[in-house]
TrEMBL record:
Superkingdom of this protein's organism: Archaea
Function according to Swiss-Prot or TrEMBL: Involved in taxis signal transduction.
Protein name per Swiss-Prot or TrEMBL: Taxis protein CheF
InterPro entries: CheF1/F2
GO biological process: chemotaxis
Keyword Nucleotidyltransferase found: no
Keyword terms: Chemotaxis
Oligomer status and interactors: Interacts with chemotaxis (Che) proteins as well as flagella accessory (Fla) proteins.
Lineage: Archaea, Methanobacteriati, Methanobacteriota, Stenosarchaea group, Halobacteria
């Protein structure tokens, strides 16, 4: 590789061109232009310009028994779609994921509206073109009049759609996140479906992990009622404002919600945590579907 290598480690890998159904030990090299996976029997070279999707932590069914935490890189070659899987030590994989997304999003320009909403209120924010950069745990929208940073651990809702920003209708990401204690909605339109996939995957990295944790919690009707009441009050409310019947019963339910890390003590009462906001968002989405 003539260009400089930004990541270089040994892990377990799989690609269709290797001619085996089982993963093998291989060397993984990443530059700003390509990904190379080399084994004793050959190598697979993937131009980053041909990558159209990256999935972190999810493995195709036929390979699930072989891999734990991994990265699947989907790309096009000779008119067909292929994929390569990479697994390594956590430190190597964290660095690889960040540098891979950095390279893939390096020349992506988006049109953003931020904040499009604060709470449930639509703002008069203008649309601006911006560049994208990533760093551990966050994504930045820069080179625009009002640059902003999104903490990935604060993303509570996400939607792929089409929106008209800057006078053009394009694929868009609409995502809600917590900023300075407020729920904020931002919109970013992208030039094509490839950019939509890759940008969306990065924004959703920690969101998907949190949603998997929430799958194990099945709230009761009473718990949902209290969570929605707090949400409707702006994300924080005094117990008197969320009582749905007996005060002692409501207090017990709130204690359970605290134990599940769905509610925390705020300045003026019970406040929704990120997980609590995600449950309410999911519930309201199902009701309005």
């Amino acid at each position: 590789m003539a260009e400089s290598v930004v990541a270089d480690f040994v892990g377990r890998v799989h690609a269709a061109s290797f001619g085996t159904d089982d993963p093998v030990t291989g060397r993984v090299l990443l530059s700003q232009r390509r990904l190379v996976i080399a084994t004793d029997d050959g190598k697979e070279t993937v131009p980053l310009s041909r990558v159209f999707d990256v999935v972190v932590g999810s493995v195709p069914g036929d390979l699930r028994s072989f891999f734990n935490d991994s990265v699947t890189v989907a790309y096009e070659r000779d008119g067909s779609r292929r994929s390569a899987l990479v697994e390594g030590e956590p430190e190597d994989m964290d660095k690889f994921v960040r540098l891979l997304f950095t390279a893939l999003l390096r020349n992506v320009t988006v049109t953003v509206r931020h904040p499009a909403k604060v709470g449930g209120r639509v703002t008069d924010a203008s649309d601006h073109r911006a560049s994208v950069s990533v760093s551990p745990g966050e994504i930045r929208f820069e080179n625009c009049p009002e640059p902003f940073t999104v903490d990935l651990s604060a993303v509570i809702d996400y939607e792929r759609t089409d929106r008209t920003l800057g006078g053009k209708k394009r694929p868009a990401l609409v995502f809600r996140h917590v900023e300075d204690g407020r729920t904020v909605e931002s919109i970013a339109t992208v030039p094509n479906e490839r950019a939509l996939n890759i940008l969306g995957r990065y924004i959703k990295i920690e969101y998907d992990e949190a949603m998997e944790e929430l799958d194990s919690f099945d709230p009761t009707e009473e718990q949902l009622e209290i969570l929605v009441s707090i949400y409707s009050a702006g994300g924080e409310a005094n117990i008197a404002d969320v009582v749905t019947g007996d005060v002692a019963q409501t207090s017990m339910i709130l204690d359970t919600l605290r134990e599940e890390n769905l509610v925390a003590d705020g300045e003026s009462g019970a406040a929704l945590t990120r997980k609590g906001q995600m449950i309410v968002s999911s519930y309201l989405e199902s009701v309005n579907a």
